[in-house]
Design goal:
The complex is a heterodimer of chains A (225) and B (220). With 225 residues, chain A is of the alpha/beta class. Chain A has helices at 12-21, 36-40, 93-101, 137-143, 204-210, and strands at 29-32, 51-54, 58-61, 84-90, 107-110, 114-116, 121-122, 146-150, 162-163, 178-180, 184-189, 192-199, 215-216, 222-224. In chain A, the strands form two sheets. In chain A, strands 1, 2, 3, 4, 5, 8, 10, 11, 12, 13 and 14 form an eleven-stranded mixed beta sheet that branches. In chain A, strands 7-6-9 form a three-stranded mixed beta sheet, with no helix packed on it. The two termini of chain A are 16 Å apart. Chain B has helices at residues 2-5, 26-35, 55-59, 75-82, 93-105, 168-173, and strands spanning 13-16, 40-43, 63-68, 87-90, 110-112, 126-129, 132-137, 142-153, 158-159, 175-186, 205-208. The chains are: A alpha/beta (225), B alpha/beta (220). Chains A and B meet through helix 3 and helix 4 of A and helix 4, helix 5 and helix 6 of B. Chain B: InterPro entries: 3-oxoacid_CoA-transf_A (IPR012792), CoA_trans_fam_I (IPR004165), CoA_transf_BS (IPR004163), NagB/RpiA_transferase-like (IPR037171).
């Protein structure tokens, strides 16, 4: 499916993924997190060629295999079977993270529990409640050239996940570059967080009302449909 | 297998290759379970899933401490941690890989800036080198390392299966004793020197795998 097509029944998750895919450029090396980030791959146009890095030791993962054709040993970092793209390679976990720490990832797309207006990311621990661990998120968030956060704007309790300062323990400081939610597209700049687009049918006032962080604007705010 | 199992004992440190169960050695884990070994300190990327791979050791309460980057796919690990039954030391994944590698290659420690400004700093010595701040990360070794290979020759040279490589080559180097479970055991000379990922000099025992004895999480 190309990014120009909009399904009548598109979910907010698909819309976020479709918008995130527009930031993907030809030739990029990209790591996708679990959930909405994984869906981004489905919206990248076929003439934009990228290599997907999986931190369990694959450069060049392809689409999911057909049912019955899975190799249980060939999985992405989420534990789901994958296929390989042309030119793919396998390597151990140390090399997988060498690629990350050396800054060779052009983009990482990941989910968060909270993200602050200065780009701080919290996504690995809710003290006393949910403690899954950081996995590879600290390296990914700290070292990728471009860090794109994709998330719902509000948490389950209706609170803004886009905050002035994170209250949860951090994954990385000042790491996020872009934040794409079901309500807005925002960019972290050195002087603060800028609202770039609103997601249809929300308006600027809706987004400002739903956002705890201070949102700046310069020029026109676009509408993404 | 019997000889290999004599090296597992209560209270030992055990290191396992694998990532979300992929690359965990199924038959060795079954052997550890059947022998009744407990109070393990487990070093592994994660705690897999409740019924998969090393996740079974956690589910059966054989582990008292785990050093891992992630336990989220095994709710038993989280529940035991909350109940105070399981001690968990979290380590960023790439740093865990390098700590295992450092242990395996005989280094005294590594310097990294990963996790600076987060609680991952806690308890770690800071080192300033050429004006940059680093955390000193300590090497990891284990009394026994367990590894899953696709093929092993009788010298212990190893070839891995696609993404089941993950932590396995690193873990293979970091055991005082390293035991490999291989899907196929071949004669010396049958593997091309060019295709061997782990040289056999790191390996102490090779056992024949009886194959994966669990259903994968996606197989439903």
């Amino acid at each position: 499916m190309g990014m120009g097509e909009v399904k009548e029944t598109e979910t907010y998750r698909e819309r976020i993924a479709r918008r995130a895919a527009m930031e993907v450029e030809d030739g990029m090396i990209i790591n996708l997190g679990i959930g909405i980030p994984t869906m981004v791959a489905d919206f990248i146009p076929s003439d934009v060629r990228v290599m997907f890095h999986a931190e369990n030791g694959i450069m060049g993962t392809g689409p999911s295999p057909k049912k019955g054709e899975e190799n249980p040993m060939l999985c992405n970092a989420g534990g789901f079977p994958v296929t390989l793209a042309t030119g793919a390679s396998f390597f151990d976990s140390a090399t997988a993270f060498a690629i990350i720490r050396r800054g060779l990832l052009d983009m990482t797309i990941l989910g968060v529990l909270e993200v602050s207006q200065s780009g701080d990311i919290a996504n690995w621990i809710v003290p006393g409640k949910r403690v899954p661990g950081m996995g590879g998120a600290m390296e990914l968030a700290q070292k990728a050239k471009k860090v794109m956060v994709v998330t719902t704007h509000l948490d389950k309790n209706g609170r803004s996940k886009i905050v002035r300062e994170c209250s949860l323990p951090l994954t990385a400081k000042g790491a996020a570059d872009w934040i794409i939610t079901d309500m807005a597209v925002m960019q972290v700049m050195p002087d603060g967080l800028y609202l770039r687009e609103v997601m249809y049918p929300y308006c600027v006032a809706d987004v400002i009302g739903a956002t705890e962080a201070e949102l700046k604007m310069d020029g026109e705010v676009g509408v993404f449909r | 297998m019997e000889e290999a199992l004599t090296h597992f004992h209560d209270g030992m440190t055990l290191m396992a290759g694998g990532f979300g169960g992929v690359g965990n050695p199924p038959s060795l884990i079954q052997g550890i379970l059947e022998k009744g070994v407990r109070d393990l300190t487990l070093i592994s990327n994660d705690t897999a899933f409740p019924h998969i791979g090393i996740g079974k050791l956690v589910t059966e309460k054989r582990v008292k401490k785990v050093i891992a980057s992630h336990i989220g796919s095994n709710p038993n690990a989280g529940a035991q941690m909350t109940a105070g039954e399981l001690e968990v030391e979290f380590c960023p994944q790439g740093i865990l890989a390098e700590r295992v590698r450092a242990g395996g290659v005989g280094l005294g420690g590594i310097l990294s800036d990963v996790g600076i400004g987060t609680i991952a700093e806690k308890g770690k010595q800071k080192v300033v080198l050429n004006g940059r701040e680093f955390l000193l990360e300590t090497p990891l070794t284990a009394e026994v390392s367990i590894v899953h290979a696709k093929k092993a020759d009788r010298f212990g040279n190893l070839v891995f299966d696609t993404s089941a490589r993950n932590f396995n080559p690193l873990v293979a180097m970091a055991g005082d004793i390293t035991i490999v479970e291989a899907d196929e055991i071949v004669e010396i000379g049958e593997l091309s020197p060019e295709e061997i990922v782990t040289p056999g000099v790191f390996i102490n025992f090779i056992v024949q795998s009886e194959g994966v004895n669990w259903q994968w999480a996606w197989e439903k």
